[in-house]
Amino acid sequence: MTFEGEHLLPGQVGHFFVLLAFVASMLSTIAYFRASKIEHLAEKKMWLRYARTTFFIEVASILTVFTTIYFICSHHYFEYMYAYKHASKELEPKYLLACIWEGQEGSFLLWSIWHSVLGTILIFKSKKLEAPVMTVINFAQFFIMIMLLGIYLFDVRIGNSPFVLTRNELEGPIFSQPDYLSFIKDGVGLNILLRNYWMVIHPPILFLGFASTIVPFAFAYAGLSTKKFGDWVKPALPWTLFSAGILGIGIMMGAKWAYESLSFGGYWAWDPVENASLVPWMVMIAGLHCMAIYNATGNSLRTSYLFIILSFAFILYSTFLTRTGILGDTSVHSFTEAGVAMNILIGLFAVALPLPMLFLYIKNYKSLPTLHVEESTSSREFWMFIGSLIFFLSALFIIAVTSVPVYNKMFNTNIADPQDREFTYNKVMVMVAVIIGSLTAMSQYFKYRQTGKKYFLPKIILPFTLAAALTVLLVEIYPSQYIKQGQGFLVAIYLALFACFFSVIANAAYLWVVLKGNLKAGGAAISHVGFTLMIAAMLISSGNRKVISDNKKTGLFMSFDKDPTGRQTDDPLENLTLLKQVPTQMADYALTYLNDSAASEKNRTFYALQVERTDSSTGKVLENFRLTPDVYKTKDNNISSNPDIKHYLFHDVFTYISSIPDKSSFIDTAQFKIHEMKLKDTVFYSKGFLVLNDVLKNPDNERFHFTSSDTALVADITVFSNEGTSYKAYPLLAIKNYEVDYKDDTVFSKNLYLKLAGLSDEGKFKIAVKESDMPSDFVTLKAYVFPYINFVWLGLIIMAAGIMLSILRRVKAKPFVAALVLIAVSAGLFYMFLLAN
Amino acid sequence: MKSSHIFILVGIAIAIGGLLMYSVDFSTYDTIESARQKQGKYVHLIAKLDKRKPVLYDAIKDPNYLSFYAVDSIGGSTRVVYHNAKPAELEQSERVVLKGKMQGDIFECDNILLKCPSKYKDEKKQLEKTVTRQ
Fold first, then answer.
1. Which residues of chain B neighbour A393 with C-beta distances below 8 Å?
2. CB contact under 8 A, A418 and B25
3. CA nearest neighbour of B74 among B100, B102, B42, B46
4. CA distance A84 to A72
5. Terminus of chain A with fewer CB atoms < 10 Å: N or C?
6. Which residues pair with B48 in a beta bridge?
């Protein structure tokens, strides 16, 4: 059978280039490997030339594949499964790229594109180490390409091609018809949860972070394979810095996304997915510090190797965790599983590079040079090493707890997350923060090898005192509200805060006192200021997060069912229901749900909330603003909620919809009851009475704009409720083109529908009243205040700038270029984290 | 620092790490029946919404009270109370992971994780349904 309207050429082209990239990556791996092993110069050159050529063919092929997928998705060629699954016609153009990396295939492709970019730079920059370094990168590329192959080997599909056809993948009666395409009106499209500005930017940055961890790893391999064990550290340092910086930014972009648009109620929840990318970063940071030690003193080469290898190993392990569906029961994130064959491939990828490397490391362990002098406890390297070790161990702790689902699978156990997951991590990490904060504060004032007391003590005493004073001040005027874990933990929080303040002040002071404002050399100090500022802000913003929609405090609920548990919980009851147009007091804020309005995307609704904060003593309005959180509703009644946040310099007011009335299944059985009324007549209804004040003919006022040529009557009605409140209503009757048009008016809060139904014979007006049992219009929401949240993002930006500065110094960038890059990076991040949205 | 020192340090660190792991109070996945034996202990239930029994939720009266019944694959059944908003997809979910404690006959739940057919495993089947519907 031939099918009508299909565009098969792009798929064939795309698949051809997948195969070409696969073959090229294999050949390039072999060629680079040969080149790295051969001593003979001419022959080495020959292999290198061959390796480069195949690598560039591979890069070109990967770019072509990506372009082809983009073409298919942007042209809505739904005959391709990938377009059908991820694209749709209503998708805004900015999400076209996002929908490509929504899928497993697309995100692998993104990863390999970054490998291509990094590889191209490395060819020009890694000089003598090019061959071994590129061997590793191509080997990784080879694995990623297998995942995209989609060819059959003994009836098993190896990898998933992004170019498979819908009709081959799905079964359905329409596929037996030649014109099946005319039945597929639209694609499924990007998951509504992911339709967000961060979905466009977070995955590429995070994947650049992921991809970049291979570079230090590849350099480490070069060190082991060339047997010049220490030579890789210096050229690898800027790459390690780059990787640490980008991965850090990528993770925090995810945090920002979670905070501002996924309704998790915060930026960090110790979710397995979050941990899986945090752990490699922490190990990378530990490795970075060991490399810096080696670079300065010749110590810690062995640990540098170990941490760099493990950092990349953890990247692959996290890929394994998040893409095989193994976390299904523990994470709030959704995972698509691509079948057993694919899971095995991912598992293979996760061990294929790190295992041989670890083997090589152990084999060469004894030959790795170490210094056989005792490190002095007054040396910088000693404390840096201790800090790295603690950072590394805390990362191991995190991944050990996160891996529980893996143990379950392996040993068939049924261990689950602890009751209070956050506290499980927090109680350990708060102590890590105390140690790391203190170490980053002090180690700057130690010199490598040996430090005199006369040098160290006078310089450290001032930052120490200032930080202590600041902490005491904080305890006095802005105490942490995080008391639910008891006094002991509160003390730990204050200790961590002190350590962070200590580090911020000490590192800032270091810039002035020791470096005398020579910022070029201050990359490390600036990064430390940023990092510890970020941690301090996290401690404050999470510790003092306030639920302002606490129903226990508002008391706005009535039991409709006997609660068998007796509701003993100390936690706030976070959901608050707002009836339409009824102001509700919530902590210092008065909230009114005004109305809802449709958005340009289908199924998306914005809810306008008016927020007013008044001074409780004077009654003066302090602030007045509008929040419009929104909700996506899918066909099968799923909702996806996007918060709206009012940003202030020092705090955020954050709200999102947790429930909306489901009217789809409701049939309104209430009937209109007609009353014949004269002007000033009164009619009672179940909860009060209403008065017909007047009937206006063709009114022209702020609400209606009729002229004398119209035929329209408007009833002016006041509704008085038993509670003493009154409402105005204006039902309308108009004659247009010989047809009568009724426009009812509604008193939402009383669920009262009013209609001007006509005139009776005795010159009375027919007013129809309906008391609906239709659920009233309402929204249920949660609202929080996050204090000092902006310092979290500011800290990150400072840290990134510090790391960037270190990179620029290491690569000896010209001052002008360095300044330009630095300004661009900082400004870009500042815009993304603090201004956009 | 001598390498023996490093080994001692690493040894101590691993010991601390081991103790930390030991200190984590892990919960367990349980069936409704075995959870009932562990009154008041924090467990995870993998269950399904019992669609024949009422789901009680009225956001206007009390948005922080949800009550429904859950059944598991081996036939256990319990009433569940959750002091939070009702997840919109509850009725559509094909599997729920309930975290909480059994108190008498009631499972007092503080976290619900929904596994919905549209988002998870049977994605292919769901797509087939969608494509046929058009």
1. 13-14, 16-17
2. yes
3. B46
4. 10
5. N
6. B71
**C-alpha to C-alpha distance for B66 and B71, rounded to whole angstroms:** 16
Tokens encoding A611 = 């927020």
Spatial CA neighbour of A657 closest among A552, A573, A561, A575: A575
Residue A690, beta-bridge partner list: A683, A719
Q: Closest Cα of chain A to B47: distance in Å?
A: 12
Could B131 and A166 be called an inter-chain contact, meaning their C-beta atoms sit closer than 8 Å? yes
CA–CA separation, A511 vs A806, rounded Å? 14
Chain A contact set for B120 (CB, 8 A):
328, 334-336
Between these two residues, A85 and B14, which has the higher pLDDT value? A85
CA of A482 to nearest chain B CA: how many angstroms apart?
A: 19
Give the best residue of B19, B20, B46 to mutate against chain A (max A CB count within 10 A): B20
Q: Are A438 and A502 in contact (CB under 8 A)?
A: yes
**A739: enclosing H helix or E strand:** strand A739-743
Residue count of chain B: 134
Q: Average pLDDT over chain B, rounded to whole?
A: 78
**Measured between CB atoms, which of A191, A382, A416 is closest to B1?**
A382
- Is B89 in Cβ contact with A638 (below 8 Å)? yes
CA distance A163 to chain B (A): 16
| pLDDT tens by residue, B17-47 | 777 766 777 888 888 888 888 888 888 888 8
Rounded (10°) angle between helices A104-125 and A214-226: 50
CA A657-A203-A526 angle, 5° bins: 95
* Predicted local distance difference test score (pLDDT) of residue B118: 46
- A375: chain B residues, CB-CB within 8 Å: 1
What residue ranges of chain A have pLDDT lower than 70? Answer: 262-265, 332-338, 373-374, 552-561, 565-572, 599-602, 634-638, 663-669, 748-749, 773-776, 837
Distances (CA, A) of A406 to A215, A320, A504, A801: 28, 10, 39, 37
Please report the ipTM that was assigned to this predicted complex: 0.80
pTM of the model: 0.85
Residues near A551 by Cβ (< 8 Å), separated by ≥ 6? Answer: A557, A572, A573, A574, A575, A576, B62, B63, B64
Express each pLDDT in A429-484 by its tens digit: 999 999 999 999 998 888 887 777 777 787 888 899 999 999 999 888 888 877 77
For residue A624, give every residue at least 6 positions away whose Cβ sits within 8 Å of its Cβ, in sequence order, or none: A610, A611, A612, A613
Spatial distance between the Cα atoms of A483 and A481, rounded to a whole number of angstroms: 6
Please give the C-alpha separations between residue A797 and each of A504, A529, A813, B43, in angstroms, as whole numbers. 14, 11, 21, 41
- How far apart CA A600 and CA A307 sit, in angstroms, is 49
Q: Which of A299, A419, A567 sits opposite B27 (nearest CB)?
A: A419
Distance of CA A791 to the CA centre of its chain: 18
Q: How far apart are CA B66 and CA B79, in angstroms?
A: 11
In whole angstroms, what is the distance from residue A321 CA to residue A339 CA? 14
- Distance between CA atoms of residues A72 and A169, nearest Å: 17
Three-state secondary-structure class, residue A243: helix
- Torsion angle of alpha carbons A438, A440, A446, A450, nearest 10°? 90
Which domains are seen in chain B, by residue range? 27-120 (2.40.50.140)
Compute the nearest-CA separation of A660 from chain B (Å): 8
Indicate the DSSP class of residue A518: -
Question: Are B49 and B55 in contact, with CB atoms under 8 Å apart?
Answer: yes
SS3 state at A681: coil
Work out the angle at residue A349's Cα, subtended by the Cα atoms of residues A254 and A232, and round it to the nearest 5 degrees.
80
Which amino acid, A234? K
Cβ pair A173:B132 closer than 8 A: yes
CA distance A60 to A113: 10
Q: What is the pLDDT of residue A530?
A: 96
Amino acid at A192: I
